[in-house]
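Encode chain A's predicted structure.
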Amino acid sequence: MMQPESKNLSQNPDIRFLGALLGEVIRDQGGEALYRRTEYIRSAAVDRARGVEGTDTGLDALDLDSTLAFTRGFMLFSMLANLAEDRAGGTNDNAIGVADALARLEQGGIGRDKVAETLSRALIMPVLTAHPTEVRRKSMIDHRNRIADLMLLRDAGTQETPEGEPVTEAIARQIALLWLTRSLRRERLYVADEVDTAIAWLRDVFLPVLPALYVHWDRALGQRVAPFLRVGSWIGGDRDGNPNVVAESLGMALGRASEAVLGHYLAEVDALGAQLSVSSELAAVGADVQALAEASGDNAPSRTDEPYRRAIAGIYARLCATFVTLTGKPCPKPSRLVAEPYAKPEALRADLVVLARGISRQAKALRTEGALARLIRAVELFGFHLASLDLRQNSDVHERTVAELLAVAGVEADYLSLDEAGRTKRLREVLASPRPAMLPRHGYSEETAGELAIFAAAATARTQYGERAIERAIISKAASVSDLLELTLLLREAGLDAVTPVPLFETIGDLDAAPNIMTEWLGLSEVAEAAKARGHQEVMLGYSDSNKDGGYLTSTWRLYGASLDLAAVFADAGIAMQLFHGRGGAVGRGGGSSFAAILAQPPGTVGGRIRITEQGEVIAAKYGSAEAARTNLEAMAAATLLATLEPPALHAKDGARFAGAMDTISAAAFKAYRGLVYDTPNFRQFFRTMTPVAEIATLKIGSRPASRTKSDAIEDLRAIPWVFSWAQARVMLPGWYGVGTALAGFEDRALLKEMADWPFLAAILANMEQVLAKSDMGIAARYAALAGDDGAPIFARIREGWERTRDQLLEVTGQSRLLEHNPALDASIRLRLPYIEPLNLLQIELLKRHRSGETDPRIAEGIQLSINAIATALRNSG
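Encoded structure for chain A:
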């Protein structure tokens, strides 16, 4: 049962093994009848995928209860297939690790000293966000990860778990637990839930994995490298469109993160105390270690000759005091010593370094590449804050807040009526004056008071947890220099002058305006001075809204062009640029291989510094296990090094030719995309009827509201449900529409084929090919039927556009079918297709019944389950 029978679909023995166990669980828990119905539907779907005509789907025999059970079964098979695929190395995107990148650079004449020098000023940061695209409950992911651990035991030939349970039985039990675990959330997530989920990833994966990676990187480079790769978060600080994120949320997020990281340090220091039993009677101990031991206050007679243990007891006591001070909770394992808390993580690190230096003077057997070295790295990377938390708010809110501050302070009665020049002039005057703009005891409006409370909480957090706890504040909808100055003023009023204001340019218009805005911004003397003192200025580029605004190809090209133009602006100003890429999981939101995406960045725009959002299902996919995290962090580091140090892949002359061609292609793609999405009468109604966008809004997968406004216009729709709903209907429109028309209309075919090897266009075509392969116009036509006859002409344009895009891609890449050059991904998708089709067909039927007014709660539950199952099978949501 649940075993793909065709070798063309899968040769992965893990899929067969896990599928067989799932079949037994369904038979045991759901009964023989459900097992046989599910097996019939599976076999029929496989036959249809092979081209067998006239095969009955078997879906008509399912009542509502059986529909729910069947949907869960196919969802679980997809989850297990994903696990098996990941274990086999995933769908290879040619990513490499740091060691291979070093070898590649050396072949090009770039030595390791140059690499180390680059890393000394580098910053690579994945930033976890709570964007609601993870449809699976954390409990489901945890069971999946336990199966992965058990499969490793099976690989090693181990017959029993450490607890004495046969490994195969333990795996079957975990699959049964998956079957018996509720798949859907009953209540919408709160911010606290999102914080706890993020902290679980950070504590269980990043905390142990990153320090160990640095040991590996140090060895590869032959020297200790700077802490260039850190982790960030938006969760608890991103209040753009989320009224549930308030000052208390910020304090809660940072407090729980601090509790997690300090708890980790306490456990590691406690374990070190058990290990470092070095006796001063058997080894020479330096004065610095002895001094640390004496200062600890540990005078136990049993340890008078064990200075390392005494010193560690003192470090532990200070950490305990730090834990109590920062969390307000008792130390998990209290110390019997009385000690002062560490004021800063640097002081903890200094004490640990004393121990490391002392050990290094001993025999080679005590070299510090073990737990102590990893702990020192952890303190460098995670401090007392765990992850650097960004603030984010919409510029409209900043604007209203500043207007009220200035009016109350008697500085500007009607700030909102000023034009851009007037606002900039007034804000610079206020910033140049030592007079505060905020009156501490004034009763401001609810919105303004809330904003001021957030900034006050951020200032408190930096004092408590260290300056790296909050380093940036991001402005959504940044459209002018005054937007940046408004945030600068709010930061100053809270004593947050050291926090960097970061503009986020999202739409096509924003991207076009970005270079001029940043030219003017960096042209302000006080801004340039602050940026040079900081060492860089960050700019964030948004992939999601630019795609919804202008289509996939135009969005990607404008992002590329904006990056190049910004690099020139920063070079002229003599200031280092740091780009923050706001990428989603799906191709329509900037998804795809991070390795390929970084390598495809324009020359001169990475410079060793890059931040990238990681959100929703991508977090579990990339960092759901230690092995996955190691692989993806290695790839991110390697790609950044190559993008920074390798010479450009194109000569300037070729770059100019290719850019000219892309301008022409992008303009045609933009026209085609806008013509369909924004200029076609009734398209909005067609979209909302054809896709389950309204039903997706009922999923309880995030704390923020499903939409920014009550408008149903495409412009006001969030990018996540826009992409998510097209994926469910198997159209994947945001990932390809308009490209086929643009490519077909480009006359220089030889140039087009030459450009296909350019890393930038190659990445676009590879991502687009993936979404074309996952789409299915036959199934999409059934969804289109939900829109009635009025929607037929619109869907005809979509189908024609899909066929044209497929044909053009095949011609440009020299293939006879999609994914011919990527057999691993081809096999992965072909494996899933027979299991997705029945889910789509059931979803369509349930949507019909739900929209016709049937009120049986099992129908709504079935729709939500089908959304979950299809997203799992496709491996991305929004």
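Residues 652-874 form one domain.
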